[in-house]
Amino acid sequence: MTAVSSPSQTVRIGSRKSQLALVQTEWVQAELQQRHPERQFDVVTMSTQGDNILDVALAKIGDKGLFTKELEVSMLRGDTDLAVHSLKDLPTHLPDGLMLGAITEREDPADGLVVNAKFKDHQLDTLPPGAVIGTSSLRRLAQLRHYFPELTFKDVRGNLNTRLQKLDAGEYDGLILAVAGLKRLGFGARIQQVIPPEISLHAVGQGALGIECRAADPEILAIVKTLEHYPTAQCCLAERAFLRELEGGCQVPIGVNTQIDGDELTLTGLVASLDGQNLVKNQITGPITAAEGLGVTLATQLKGQGAAKILAEIFTEVRPGT
Ligand SMILES: NCc1[nH]cc(CCC(=O)O)c1CC(=O)O
């Protein structure tokens, strides 16, 4: 008798429809298919709120689950079994019934500068005063304003291709984008400068993928876990604990950098005011196995150093009335 795969053998992977999301999900699909040949892995795509609202600055619409909610509802209904996210888009609090099943190996987590052809060979410190830099992230804005007050910063929305088209059409002189996204979409050659952590700390979870699944589905969890990359997971769990403790979403100027050296993990964290005038930054080192505790401790330290005041100010500025 030949084994015919029953419908229950099919694992359905939820994904956003953007080109980056699809590249990432197809990578996960191929890796899982290779590790679990007895199963069939299908991709189910859906649009999220974040994909549909393109005319409003991200900072103004809030961030809680903007790019993830539809994928989560689908898992809770049993229409899909897991979801692939850019980890930085996944909120630190997940809905009841779901969990972060695995974190995959991280691509370069840094931000990168991409420029219009007329500024070929320029870097942030050689661009002329007034050059227009596109970014939709308050974190990038605050840090870059601090170090390059003579540059002009302008909001930019849309997927990566749209953004690059706007850049090449001359609407911007430069864009700040995640190196990971550019590389995954084949635009690595356009990265003019990888921005060092001394100038701009990256977003929590940047460059890694987070695979979310149902908390009460051990079979799927066991499958998903086979994609976990331990060092990346510990770094990202430290970063996510730091962010959770500060209660800031991805649209608050919070930056991090995490390094592993032997059995030790060093987490650097920053909270910045929107105008980039005030940067509160600190660092903590401890055993890798205490990753989340290190994130919580660093957050508490930063709050005491002035971060609590900065965050309170931002919440009243960005979301008046709430
Ligand atoms: N904010 C959107 C987003 N979410 C994930 C990435 C790609 C990089 C990653 O995996 O962190 C990007 C694009 C960007 O920030 O330039």
Overview of the molecule:
Belongs to the HMBS family. Monomer. GO terms for molecular function: hydroxymethylbilane synthase activity. It is an enzyme of class 2 (transferase). Its cofactor is dipyrromethane. This protein is an alpha/beta fold. The protein folds into 3 domains: 129 residues, D-Maltodextrin-Binding Protein, domain 2; 84 residues, 3-Layer(aba) Sandwich (D-Maltodextrin-Binding Protein, domain 2), CATH 3.40.190.10; 94 residues, 2-Layer Sandwich (Double Stranded RNA Binding Domain), CATH 3.30.160. The chain has 9 helices and 13 strands. The protein has a 5-stranded mixed sheet, with helices on both faces. Bound molecules: the ligand NCc1[nH]cc(CCC(=O)O)c1CC(=O)O.
Bound molecules: ligand PBG
CATH topology of the largest domain: D-Maltodextrin-Binding Protein, domain 2
Helix content: 25-40%
Name of the top-level CATH class of the largest domain = Alpha Beta
If strands are numbered along the chain, what order do they take across the biggest sheet? 2-1-3-10-4
Shape by Cα distribution: globular
Strand content: 15-25%
List low-pLDDT spans.
1-7
Strand count, sense and closure of the main sheet? 5 strands, mixed
The succession of helices and strands, N to C, reads EHEHHEEEEHEHEHEEHHEEEH
Q: Total helix count?
A: 9
Tally of individual domains:
3
The average pLDDT value, as a whole number, equals 91
Write down how many β-strands occur, each being a DSSP E stretch of 2 or more residues: 13
Between the first and last Cα atoms, what is the distance in angstroms? 64 Å
Provide the structure class. Answer: alpha/beta
What would you give as the CATH superfamily of the largest domain? Periplasmic binding protein-like II
CATH architecture of the largest domain: 3-Layer(aba) Sandwich
Rg over CA atoms, rounded to whole Å, is 20 Å
